[in-house]
Specification:
25% helix
Length: 186
Amino acid sequence: MKSEIKVTKMNQNWNPMYLLTKNLIQKITLAIAVFSLSIVSLHAQTSARELSRTRAPNSVGIGAQFGQPTGLSLKVYNPNGISTDVLAAWDLDHFFFVNVHGLVENHIGSSGKVHYFVGPGVFAGIRQNNGEGVSSNDFAAGISGNFGLNVILGIVEIYGQVTPRLELIEETSGAVGGGVGIRFYF
């Protein structure tokens, strides 16, 4: 029986689709990490005068989210309506997906720096399914919601959010994710 398990694991590691997906996800992860570090390095050199600016309507915020899931975050800010929030997320050996939300932000207090946000969304992605020695990729999609808090410091947004998801395609199941992140607005 032990030899069967070993052979099964060996077959999974030699599966071309498994190797292709794993290599692709690793390359995407490395590219996102390098991109995020470049942005942080660039903005570390930002002058105090530039930090006193604030995010403008229709400005684009780019950054990273850390948590469950981790990913690259993009937001198009609309103070008078619905902002668009996109998260390209991954878990190295298990999934890669894109989550899109329409968010409404409201001030908390009088400073205008702290907000709460809430909004509906959708997600779609590829999930690795390992079972009985066979490795395959399944398409998954569903609906989600997003709510949390953010603090705006000039052109920098620091946020924390919770994202409940209901998968409707391949199977019906629920999950809750979320994380903390940072975005720089251009």
